[in-house]
């Protein structure tokens, strides 16, 4: 799977929010129920989160993240098709391209892009990520940026651990462990 990126700053989003609609849908991933948000124009994934409480809270969280956009349920099951492409075992040999829309600061986006280069099924430390982006003293800022990632699995923040073995995850440790186990069993 090849991941490509589009980015939008908070300022640009405020100016251009009316240029796209967000479709959302739910998907039963191999490691738990997720809510996915995509743009209506180019089908870029801009949200991939676990349903921790219930579906209504998950939709509210999406709306809080993209407060100026019209958010509607996916009427044509486009999200299901995208997710099937991502998780289909038959696609292991095919190179699928997934487009992500990242909204954040330049630093956050730099960190998130770096995470994509971490090999599947492996883990590294926050310090390693700081070194990857040539900011070795920015470990705390890296950890904060990782905590703000809202595209789970595809931007693999689950592959990052504290150097002392600490194991945090925005959606809860059970999801992190489930994803790492899933990745380890895909061989």
From TrEMBL:
Protein name according to UniProt: Methylated-DNA--protein-cysteine methyltransferase
Single Gene Ontology MF annotation: methylated-DNA-[protein]-cysteine S-methyltransferase activity
Domain Methylated-DNA-[protein]-cysteine S-methyltransferase DNA binding stretches: 106-184
UniProt cross-references to PROSITE patterns, sorted A to Z: MGMT
UniProt GO BP: DNA repair; methylation
Top-level lineage group: Eukaryota
InterPro entries reported in the protein's UniProt record: MethylDNA_cys_MeTrfase_AS (IPR001497), MethylDNA_cys_MeTrfase_DNA-bd (IPR014048), MethylDNA_cys_MeTrfase_DNAb (IPR036217), MGMT_N_sf (IPR036631), WH-like_DNA-bd_sf (IPR036388)
EC number, as in UniProt: 2.1.1.63
Catalyzed reaction equations: a 4-O-methyl-thymidine in DNA + L-cysteinyl-[protein] = a thymidine in DNA + S-methyl-L-cysteinyl-[protein]; a 6-O-methyl-2'-deoxyguanosine in DNA + L-cysteinyl-[protein] = S-methyl-L-cysteinyl-[protein] + a 2'-deoxyguanosine in DNA
């Amino acid at each position: 799977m090849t991941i490509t990126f589009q980015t939008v700053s908070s300022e640009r989003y405020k100016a251009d929010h009316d240029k796209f609609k967000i479709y959302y849908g739910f998907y039963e991933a191999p490691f738990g129920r997720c809510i996915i948000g995509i743009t209506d124009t180019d089908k870029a994934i801009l949200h991939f989160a676990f349903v921790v409480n219930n579906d209504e809270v998950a939709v509210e969280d999406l709306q809080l993240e993209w407060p100026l956009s019209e958010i509607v349920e996916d009427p044509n099951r486009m999200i299901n098709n995208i997710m099937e492409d991502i998780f289909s075992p038959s696609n292991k040999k095919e190179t699928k391209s997934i487009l992500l829309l990242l909204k954040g600061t330049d630093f956050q986006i730099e960190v998130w892009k770096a995470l994509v280069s971490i090999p599947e099924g492996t883990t590294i430390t926050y310090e390693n990520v700081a070194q990857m982006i040539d900011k070795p003293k920015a470990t705390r800022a890296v950890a904060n940026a990782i905590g703000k990632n809202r595209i789970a699995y595809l931007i693999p923040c689950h592959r990052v651990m504290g150097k002392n073995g600490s194991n945090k995850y925005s959606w809860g440790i059970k999801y992190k462990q489930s994803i790492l186990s899933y990745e380890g069993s895909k061989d």
